Amino acid sequence: MTRVGSPPAPAGLRASGRAQQPPRSRAHVEDDGRLTAELAAALSGARRRARRDGDGQIDTAHLLHSLLEADPEVRAALGGVGDTGGDAPVIRVLGYLVQRSIGYGLRWHGRVEDSGAVPVVRSRAGRTVAGWSPSAVAALGHAWEWASRRAEPRVHGLDVLAALAADHECRAVEVMERAGVDTRALAGRLQRASRRPSSRQVSSRQSSRQVS
Question: What is the pLDDT of residues 47-57, one digit of tens each?
Fold first, then answer.
């Protein structure tokens, strides 16, 4: 596949007037107060799934699988880009994901997933995260960046899905495309949504106008 440029590297999530950096350790990735409950559950689920499969690192396919199981918003977003719509794309993607340990995923076993986005993360965020593939770390970093653009205090599963779909060399995209998902359309739609002002931003602007 032709490598597509990755989104900008994380600049840090700003909340309460203080810059907050993306997580740089496994403990911070999986136990971070800035995550929604659904995303926190998905990250913990991805870790358990990788351990159960005997994989040394959590990759983007583990992350996608757990996001679909834990986050209704992620399932709804993925369901809107298939050729038939509804739950069909989600069912097809999950069908491929559950075959990982007995099918196509066997060639991934023992290999590090690195789509090429990791040099950006290393240079800006400082280091990789133990137990997570470089591509998964990059996706999480970009998710923090998209949340910060909306001035959101929490990172959502949709932010992570947008980052996964934007990396056309990662395993999550390979799975989605095998299932017939147009990942470029998905990434574009989610990234456009990430540029819309959040309810917090709108309320702040309205309050400013009332004061002035």
Answer: 999 998 888 89
